[in-house]
Amino acid sequence: MREELIQVEGMTCGHCKSAVEGAAAGVKGVTNAEVNLDKGNVLVKMEDNADLAKVIEEIEDQGYDVKK
Amino acid sequence: MREELIQVEGMTCGHCKSAVEGAAAGVKGVTNAEVNLDKGNVLVKMEDNADLAKVIEEIEDQGYDVKK
């Protein structure tokens, strides 16, 4: 298990929080995703072999920019 | 047919726009609802006998404040 803190731009409200958390949680191996709206990030807990790039891609597909 | 311009507080993003438009459009007699995020309002087109109070109630149920 590992944790990744991903900076996400453009999240403004509870809907955005749900969209980003749902996007991350849908990736294989992700066990939890929690957005902090004030800080503009999402803390993702995942299996060691989960695909971080895929997580980022799914978040971007929701219309948000990920700081890399 | 009539149009009502409703001031809505707290809409921040495209998800909010969809939520408010969907809430208004779900009321009987409403034929169109279009949110302007910059101006913080929603223009609702409805039959003469549509229930404006119900439209406002549905928007508030989505978690937004309507200025009356």
TrEMBL record, chains A, B:
<dbReference type="GO" id="GO:0006825">
    <property type="term" value="P:copper ion transport"/>
</dbReference>
<dbReference type="InterPro" id="IPR036163">
    <property type="entry name" value="HMA_dom_sf"/>
</dbReference>
<dbReference type="InterPro" id="IPR006121">
    <property type="entry name" value="HMA_dom"/>
</dbReference>
<dbReference type="InterPro" id="IPR000428">
    <property type="entry name" value="Cu-bd"/>
</dbReference>
<dbReference type="GO" id="GO:0005507">
    <property type="term" value="F:copper ion binding"/>
</dbReference>
<feature type="domain" description="HMA">
    <location>
        <begin position="2"/>
        <end position="67"/>
    </location>
</feature>
<protein>
    <submittedName>
        <fullName>Copper chaperone</fullName>
    </submittedName>
</protein>
<dbReference type="Pfam" id="PF00403">
    <property type="entry name" value="HMA"/>
</dbReference>
